[in-house]
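Problem 12. The chain below contains 138 residues. Write out its predicted structure in token notation.
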Amino acid sequence: MQVAPKAKRDRVMLTFHTALEAIAAGQHPGEEEWRSLSDAINTLETMVLMGKLLDHEVMPLVDQSIAAMVGAAKRYRAGQGMRLDGPGLIALRQVIDVYDQCLQGFTEAEMAKAQQETQNRLNALLRAKTKPANLVMV
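Solution.
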């Protein structure tokens, strides 16, 4: 088993960087950009739950990133631009950096499993009668 081919990893990372730059510039990202950033955050959280990443190293970034995304969505819904605050932007950049390290260090199969587990977790949240307060859907 091997890591994903470089071209494939580069495409994934370009998607994340493009999405982050859109929201960093104060533009309202489209659904795909929002989902890309959310996928990066949620996949890292899943990798912690799977024991692939260390909780104390990754979860503070995940928690800060989730809070930043929730804050950006609230600002947008209040008629302001969908912008990240400074700490949120830093946290999301770090999440993307960690994701890049994962792409380079874990096999393509391990990453695919983490993404599938993430989708399973999301589906369970969407089916739940009571939604978490920090769940933001676009």
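Discussion. The chain has a mean pLDDT of 89. Students who got a different answer should revisit the alignment rule from Section 12.3.
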